[in-house]
Amino acid sequence: MVLEHALITIRPGTADDFEKALMQARSVIAASPGFISLELRRGVEAPDYYLLLVEWETIDDHLVGFRQSEAFPEWRAAIGPYFQSPPVVDHFAAVETRS
User: Fold this and answer.
1) What is the Cα 17 distance to its own chain's centre?
2) Do residues 69 and 50 make contact, with C-beta atoms less than 8 angstroms apart?
3) Which of 30, 34, 42, 88 has its CA 20 to 30 A from that of 59?
4) Distance (Å, whole) CA 65 – CA 51
C-alpha cells in the first residue's frame, strides 16, 4: 500500500464549499483502480490548510492509473478552483516498527 499525502492551501473563505466539492468528487477518485481510502483533515491553527490522505494499492495506481486517466481532470475541475496554490504531494510506504 502507498499513502498519498497532499497538502492543500485553499482560498480564504471557501472552506465549506471546498469540503462539499471534495466529498462530491470523492466518487470520481474512489472509482479508480487501486483506490483504497480517502481522508481529509483541516488545519486547526490554519483553517485554510488541509491534509488529504489517499491510500492506493501501488504508486502507479495513483500516478498512472488515476493521474493519466479521464477521471483526473474531472476530479481537479471539482476541487481545483478552491486552491490558493498547487498542492504539495508526496507518497509514503509503511515501515515495519515491530521488533
Assistant:
1) 16
2) no
3) 42
4) 22
Angle at 34 between CA 95 and CA 18, to 5 degrees: 90
Handedness of CA 76, 78, 84, 87 (dihedral sign): negative
pLDDT digits (tens, 9 = 90+) for 45-99: 999 999 999 999 999 999 999 999 999 999 999 999 999 999 999 999 999 888 7
33 contacts: CB under 8 Å, gap ≥ 6: 61, 65
CA distances from 79 to 4, 28, 30, 45, 94 (A): 17, 12, 15, 22, 28
